Each structure stands twice: as C-alpha cells, then as structure tokens.
Here is the input.
Amino acid sequence: MKVSEINKTNLTEEFVDKILYEGLEDSGENADCIMVLGSIKASKYRVPVAVEAYKAGRAPKILMCGGAVRDFAEGSMSEAEHMKRKALELGVPEEDILMESHSLYTVENMLCSLLELERAFGLSRMRKVILVTTNYHMRRSYLMARSYFPDWIEILPCPADDTSTRRDNWRSNESGRKRAMEEALKIAYYINDGDIPDFEV
Here is the structure.
C-alpha cells in the first residue's frame, strides 16, 4: 500500500512502525555538516546525539535549525539559540556551530538551512549532511530534505531517542502512541499535498 492511501480508518500499528522507523538507522558515515532540527526539547534529546557525532569526527560543523521563540527555563529565545547553548555546554567550540534562526516548521528548516550551508560551505562542494531529529520525526524530515536539497547532497539519518516515541516503546504508552499515529497521518497529508514523495509500506 502507498502511504498516500492511508487514513484514520486503515492506519494500523504495523503501518505506523514501517512509515516512521523502517530503514532510517544511523549508518555511522561521515559528512560535511551535522544538521539538527529544533523543537522545545531538542536540546535535551537531539543536541547530545549531534555532539556525539561531532566529537567522533563525523563532521566539522553543527548547524542548529529553528527560529521559533520558546519560553525555556533560561529565558525566551529561539530553538536554535537554546540548542547552541547546550552544544557549548557539551564542549563544542563556538566557531564550529552554525545558526539558522528563521525557520518555523520543517519545510522552512530545509529552505532556510540551504542558505546557511551555502554561506558556510558552498552547496556545490557539499556531498553529505547528517540529519539529526527525534526518531518519530525522522521520516518526514528526511523526505523533506530529499525534496528540497540538491540531488547531489546525500542525507544521512541520525535519529535521536526520546522517552516515549522510540521504536521499541511507542506502542506501550499512550503519549507515544498518539504522537506516532498523528505523525504517520501527517506524512500522508504532506504526500497528498505534494510536499514529499509517496512510498510503499
């Protein structure tokens, strides 16, 4: 079945699992840059994964993406700024952190990041980008990147676990199950809207 054919009445847990998680494991490959997508909890779950990849020498720079201003414990700031602070705490030098502080949702993450990557590297010279986001959000983010990034840039998924939407536990808690089901339907919506390509499950 194509994901575009999925709706609330025929969406099963098996479909959700395949749509969100199948084939999106971290390959461990190196890249030109690590790109981290923002959220209210990105500093807790996503940034440590990105920093681990950076410290392993997999890429020389980390790009923090997210212009939405949130009220964090440290004060009101953009998601990108909050993630930068966390990366600095974890030992990443400031000169190796790139900032994209304009995007408000996933499509804008991709479009706004292209400008920052062009300025930092030159898109024509880039070959691979490591994409970091939460596990359940990776499929939509990966497909968005594939839709908007130039064809010659390979996108390498590097999913980050959170507490309730890991592949091994999303079915066993109400919060994770709700978020995973909603995300699968959101992917079907974006496919039918023409934003991302269709695929089989």
